[in-house]
Write a structure and sequence with these properties.
Radius of gyration: 19 Å
CATH topology: Rossmann fold
Strand content: 15-25%
Number of domains: 1
Number of helices: 9
Shape: globular
Number of strands: 9
Helix content: 25-40%
Order of helices and strands: HEHEEHEHEEHEHHEHEH
CATH class: Alpha Beta
CATH superfamily: SGNH hydrolase
CATH architecture: 3-Layer(aba) Sandwich
């Protein structure tokens, strides 16, 4: 009996450790619910998710994150319109996990007219630097800026581009030069994003990178560069992350923090 109890405790602890580090569980529903009746174009608000891994999603997906809502839409890897559930991103199949798409959308739904549906289009790819976005580098089999352009074009066929959700910067903390140039490059990139969207006043919500890195000084400098840019652009807002925590790797937000982050992005958009 004592052996059985010890074995059970070991299995429970092992499961919990795996849950903390494994972003996607094979037992969660993978069925895609394609949309038969597409909402009227004037009633669809489109948001583009862009950046690197904390926007692409690395946190653990719980059952609550896989419950669909008929007013929250996204696409699959063949660009079919589907009812959204986590994870939204599909570019890195072995690393995909919980992103902020669903928590952002749910928070927004509570504040916008009942007639409006939300379409979230994923474009974030882990490990990408802002320079790679500017140069349209092929990163992990995705041409970053070109893919963004294609998703904006797709979004315009279904609704109105309402905003960009940007979270990126961890990759730019490795060198002082990429930190120093971040605010300038962020301005260049957002100008190009807005040109593609044909809206020079398009809202962009930017999240701070976390405050939990081993390289705290560089990450702090990067966040300062984000704030420095935002002071020059009235159509951007910053989401604070200093109180959020990582999933154990001092790099990626955990599930609780990602859900909070999505809520904060929505609140900043509503401002």
């Amino acid at each position: 009996m004592k052996y059985l109890v010890i074995s059970f405790i070991f299995l429970l602890v092992t499961h919990n450790l795996n849950a903390q580090h494994k972003p996607w569980d094979k037992n969660f529903p993978k069925e895609e619910l394609k949309i038969i009746k597409i909402p009227n174009k004037e009633n669809v608000w489109v948001f583009i998710m862009a950046g690197q891994s904390n926007m692409a999603g690395r946190a653990f997906v719980a059952p609550q994150d896989t419950i669909t809502n008929k007013r929250i839409l996204t696409i699959n890897k063949t660009n079919d319109l589907i009812y959204a559930k986590e994870p939204f991103h599909f570019y890195e199949s072995k690393m995909k996990g919980l992103d902020l798409g669903m928590s952002f959308s749910k928070t927004l739904l509570a504040k916008i007219p009942d007639s409006v549906s939300i379409l979230i289009l994923p474009t974030a790819v882990g490990g990408s630097s802002i320079e790679q976005w500017l140069e349209n580098k092929n990163h992990r089999s995705v041409s970053l800026f070109e893919n963004f352009e294609k998703k904006v074009t797709l979004g315009k066929t279904y609704g109105t581009i309402k905003g960009i959700l940007w979270h990126q910067g961890e990759s730019n903390t490795a060198k002082q030069t990429t930190i120093d140039n971040y605010d300038k490059n962020l301005g260049l990139l957002l100008t190009r994003f807005r040109t593609v969207a044909n809206n020079d006043r398009l809202p962009v919500i930017i999240g701070e990178i976390g405050s939990y890195s081993k390289n705290k000084e560089n990450w702090k400098q990067l966040n300062s560069k984000i704030w420095a840019y935002v002071k020059t652009d009235v159509f951007t807002k910053v989401v604070a992350t200093q109180d959020l925590t990582h999933k154990g790797d001092q790099l990626h937000f955990n599930a609780k923090s990602i859900r909070i982050l999505g809520k904060r992005y929505a609140e900043k958009f509503l401002e």
